[in-house]
Amino acid sequence: MIIAIDGPAASGKGTLARGLADRFGLPHLDTGKLYRAVALALSDRGFPADDAAAALRAAEALDVSALPEDALLRRADLGEGASVVSAHPAVRSALLAAQRAFAARPGGAVLDGRDIGTVVCPGADLKVFVVADPEVRARRRHADLARGEPGLSFEAVLEEILRRDARDSSRADAPLACAPDAVVVDTTALSPADAVEAALSAFRRP
Questions:
Q1: Answer CATH for 2-188 from 3.40.50.300, 3.30.450.40, 3.40.30.10, 1.20.120.1220
Q2: Quick check: helix, strand or coil at residue 113?
Q3: Which of 23, 31, 94, 161 is deepest in the core (most CB within 10 A)?
């Protein structure tokens, strides 16, 4: 079984994906980490995220089985960088095969990102599009990032969230979009457990 989870930044799609992976005993891939890893590689080598040629080289050299640790990938600047590099069509193409190979594992997998149900796994058995109020999403992201960056303001995080929403939804290649057959789950007022049940309830509906 393949489960595709999509949604904007800090909507709760990663938490939901992990919950569904645990429920079904499936491996989980946060595809956003691939783009963050490319952004990190560029940053480490002194290249800007909008350098399409350098981003492609970093994507082609990426080892999906040996990604940097989460502490590095969760840096605030890499969220913005990942959004920029993900807009490069060649980068998306280079990482597409790795994502599809992960989904094709025996028994299936759970993948979350922004184009899983529309591009990466359009034939997924369950597609979920996760949404939440932007200010709620910003509060979640700020609480997560502020532990390592105590000077980070809520306003800066909200501004980044809105900027990423606009970029991810308007890019020409594989924009953030809800698949026509996806279940929409609004996590604004839901606990992680309730979000899992909401997705499963819709999946089981005759």
A1: 3.40.50.300
A2: strand
A3: 31
